[in-house]
Amino acid sequence: MLYDKVYVDYNSIILHVHIPKSGGTTVRENLVKLFKDYQVLRINEPNMNHYLSNQIDSFIDNKDKYQIKRWLKKFAITKKIIHIKNSIKNFYNRDENSIFRDFYALSTKEKQDLRFISLLQERMTIPNILGKNYLKTLIIRDPVSRIQSYYFQSKKKNKIKHDNNRSHHITKPYMVAADKYNINDFIKYLYDERPFIVSNPNCVCLSGTNDFLNTKKIIDTEFFLAAPIEQLDKFLNLILIKLFHKKEMKFQKYNVGTNNDEKIVISEKLIEKIKFTNKADIDLKAHIELEFNNILNDQTI
Fold it and tell me: What is the pLDDT of residues 226-265, one digit of tens each?
């Protein structure tokens, strides 16, 4: 990792690669507090791609749509509407609902002003901003608890939508499956229909392969900082110290899944399958833990 090697200045942008169910919301919502609103951007996987199919979807060109947005943003009335909207919405919901915060709808100046980008995608795609240096970061979680978290978080979201008579808004197929199946059948469904959720998502996202060594090289040579989810607070504190010269502080947890009150467990057979099909990610987590602890040992946290 490059934590003790990279030069950090005003041209540096934190780029957090958010693997779903790996603490990315907590990272994002704590770090945005350290920046101005205009310095922050959230980039989601397009809805037509994000875990909707077990096939590789073709890219859909939306350049015309973004050009229209850039044109609309030139008008004073549009700027006024955006300002009012941002004033009455908290940050957690703002980027998700703002039609003018698409990366490709930003002006050159707006891109130059960015200091923190949260990137939620199935593949690590680095936005092109002239002159900017990316400080890539990652949180990694063990595959068994991450897949289990998918199930309980989906059940939680489904319940909220059902209670508010909004069940028709459930669009992601794996969320619908969580309503239909017990946890073991849900995991079998993922393996059959959404294999990229359950098979080395970290390695595939970073390197486009299921190969640990390829991905390890990327972590070692390209990433500013990566950490296991168990040390998320220390990860955030290291960023505070390096980038803001601040001391340790308490961080709030976000998007925490529902508790497993009924002590529902994944079958031993499926646990073994998860471990076998995620060996590259398991090896990657062990490597990240070792490297992160080496960095910690050189700090005074």
Answer: 999 999 999 999 999 888 877 777 787 776 655 555 566 8
Instruction: Give Cα 117 distance to the centre of its chain.
Output: 10
Instruction: Calculate Rg over the CA atoms of the chain.
Output: 20
* CB neighbour class for 283 (10 Å; exposed up to 12, middle 13-18, buried from 19): middle
Among 129, 103, 139, which residue's Cα sits nearest to residue 12? 129
The residues facing 225 across adjacent strands are 137
Domain membership of residue 82 (yes or no) is no
Residue 84 lies in a domain: no
Question: Tell me: the pLDDT tens digits for 14-31?
Answer: 999 999 899 999 999 999
Q: Is residue 2 part of a domain?
A: yes
DSSP state for residue 299 in the 8-state scheme: S
Euclidean distance between CA atoms 24 and 232, whole angstroms = 10
What pTM did the predictor assign?
0.80
Do residues 21 and 151 make contact, with C-beta atoms less than 8 angstroms apart? Answer: no
Instruction: Let me know: does 22 contact 229? Beta carbons within 8 Å.
Output: yes
* Structural domain count, the chain: 1
